[in-house]
Specification:
The complex is a heterodimer of chains A (319) and B (329). Chain A is an alpha+beta fold. Chain A is built from nine helices and 13 strands. Chain A has four domains: 72 residues, Arc Repressor Mutant, subunit A (Orthogonal Bundle); 41 residues, no CATH class; 75 residues, Roll (SH3 type barrels), CATH 2.30.30; 77 residues. In chain A, helix 8 crosses helix 9. Chain A is elongated. In chain B, the strands form three sheets. Chain B has a five-stranded antiparallel beta sheet. The N terminus of chain B is likely disordered. In chain B, strand 11 and strand 12 form a beta hairpin. Classes of the chains: A alpha+beta (319), B alpha+beta (329). Chain B: Keywords: Proteasome.
Amino acid sequence: MTGPRPTGDRLGRLLNLVPYLLARPGILVSEAAADFGVTEKTLREDLELLWVCGLPGYGPGDLIDMALDDTTVTISHDAGIDRPLRLTQDEALALVVALRMLAETPGTGNRDVIERALAKIETAAGDQADAPVEVRLPGNEKRLDEFRAVVERGHALRMTYYTAARDETTERVVDPMRMVMVDGRAYLEAWCRRAEGTRLFRVDRVDAYEELDEPSLPPEEAVPHDVSEGVFRPGPELQLVTLRVGRGSRWITEYYPVEEVTRSGDEWVVTMRVTDLGWAQRLLLGLGPDVTVLGPPELLTRIHDQATAALDQYSTPGR
Amino acid sequence: MLLALPIVSRTRTERLVNLVICLLSTRRFLTAAQIALTVPGYEHDPEDPRDHEAFQRKFERDKAELRELGVPLETGTASVFDQEPGYRIAHREYALPDILLEPDEAAAVGIAARLWQHAGLAAAASSGLAKLRAAGVEVDPQATLGVEPVVTVDPAFGPLAAAARDRRAVTFSYRVPEVDDPATRRLEPWGVVCWRGRWYVVGHDRDRAATRCFRLSRIVGAVKAVGRTDAFVPPENPDLISHVAKWSGPVAHNGRATVIVKPGRGAMLRRWATDAVEGPEGDRLTISYGDAEYLASKIVGYGPDVRVEGPPEVRDAVIQRLKEVVARS
């Protein structure tokens, strides 16, 4: 699953280039270069190389021929490379799986179109597309459809949103930007007028919303998040929490992004960054005795005090 | 012996393009010697052992390069009298079949191709897209679909999908969080499944002699294919998703708990509540639950902001958990 090597890169491009140009007589060299993701200079070098390639005999009627001027190019003899190469296994897999993912994503509008495209790609790829790969994403289809429509209509939104990190439900007005699916969850990315920043809102945590009459106008500084590494990417500015974790709670290292995991006897010492100590308190109290907090001391005290006070409620009659 | 060829091959790429064109244009299998006499760049003296050996190495490298690119290089002999193997490329095997995509379908393929966040498959998706473009498909790079899934896979995905397709057994190291050392597993993979954003492989576990699914993110190191292809027959229409989904199906919420929550606190519990009544001590919430221990773990997190009235299984679970925390700290 590694990318082709540089020679292969260029060879692959050259073999694509002839049929590509054949299908588009008189195309601008600049446009072809943009489609292949190379500079115009590189594309012209490719064309010059093709010009001296051709059928055995390598005479005027055998070589690849083209009309090339300052701006456009037209192939007049293809020397038999009239079609691109078949899709490789990886190419077929990459396209088919991404299309299945897209088809399974609720709210992507016309699912029929995606299914039709998928069927055609599978036919063209032949047995290269036969890998048994199934995709099922959960999601509240109706809710996603509604949100997608809101994003498309371009209206601002007033919504009641639950923030797990602070365990609070707040009302805010946002300027929707786009919908994204990450790890099987749907998010609305929007400019939050309350926080004055771009935020990813989990759709299943929007408790209520109202579409406003005013347009969605994210300011210029509203830049979409890079979600390729997931949604929560803790930075060094967040507080570091150190835990001693037993076997039974080791799952948290798979469920939450953690900084470091080191073996210590029968347990593990785990560090993780948290946005809010209140969140850490709720998580760690809930995990029970299998997890011991090593630091910061503030969190230690807090957990002890909270547990003691909570226990008091059950021992004092009349409360 | 050097042939006076009109063109002298200047680059390896040029030689390879000419090799492809030459082998596509021939119906007869051409031997390496015949190719050397034809394609520019292979000129050498076959009588000189060192020169000849250099040619053979060069030709082997070139064949490997073409195969790596996916060029279907056929081997055979032109007649029964031939000793030397010959080569050719069948156009039918080489060429991408006709594909007619409507503009909206082409847009969907374009969007799908750029969803990949996994470097290897992102490259494969864009080179696949380049071939479709070369076949005359126009792809609008600006098209969007409203909701864009982030498509990502674990490194084990490619080898497992290939092994499932080829029906080859695999071995891999598998580490579950609760166990220290990864264990070697031997699996006949039936297929790869994405369920709720996570990837799994489903198949027949040779050691456990049973159907098992494995989470791809827990596979450590490389997946090794072992033995021959078509080594097993997967069940007919294996419902792969159901094997994964049965471990994480919905839980019935038959229990009803009553809790008192201080004003303005316990937002998550309030979201779960089916009923809320204001009272002197706080709000009295009714929460439906499936697993008392799970609900208790969430309630404990709120410390003194939440008190359980009942039922006893939830109340006792909360008290037990709190006692353990206090005793330890």
